[in-house]
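DATA SHEET
Item: assembly model
Revision: 1
Owner: S.N.
Input lines:
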Amino acid sequence: AQSVAQPEDQVNVAEGNPLTVKCTYSVSGNPYLFWYVQYPNRGLQFLLKYITGDNLVKGSYGFEAEFNKSQTSFHLKKPSALVSDSALYFCAVRAPGFQKLVFGTGTRLLVSP
Amino acid sequence: DAGVIQSPRHEVTEMGQEVTLRCKPISGHNSLFWYRQTMMRGLELLIYFNNNVPIDDSGMPEDRFSAKMPNASFSTLKIQPSEPRDSAVYFCASNRGTDTQYFGPGTRLTVL
């Protein structure tokens, strides 16, 4: 069975500092990994995905994520946080050949001015 | 190109009433997903369709919930009768094949 863990309910970071939002996964076979962001009263917006290839994936709004197979992790990163990055971030995994996405519980990112 | 469209955006109803949520997927997408988001349970997949056919409804909470997809551009999620514990945000998402899922803005349902 697929599963995703986001160990931090909330991450606090000062504007201009680098940020990391953690995600680990469990899946049979090669994983398809996704990050989504949810702003208040909005739907989930796709940020980036890893399917195959380079372990460092670049996405929207300056975000990137690093796939680490040995640690089964897919942490979301950004070199310099903005106050406008404050939102709820979801990691998701899909097993090859399956359509269902399994989401983590979400991590709230708060960027202070 | 328009994204996933959901209506209504907000619905307030009384316990026992029938509620119908609507979704129009992105044109050309052949899979459609219904999710529910609550503080307690997070984001849950309720049901998904491939080419208008329900594939997995194991997430549907109980018989009060039903979903249909009569054609490639429209789906409904119905709750009858509604209960206060059904209060949540309901999202629809669509994709083509196994590609990235794109989400609608959601319907916030409040059952009094």
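QC remark: Chain A touches chain B through 20 residues (CB under 8 Å).
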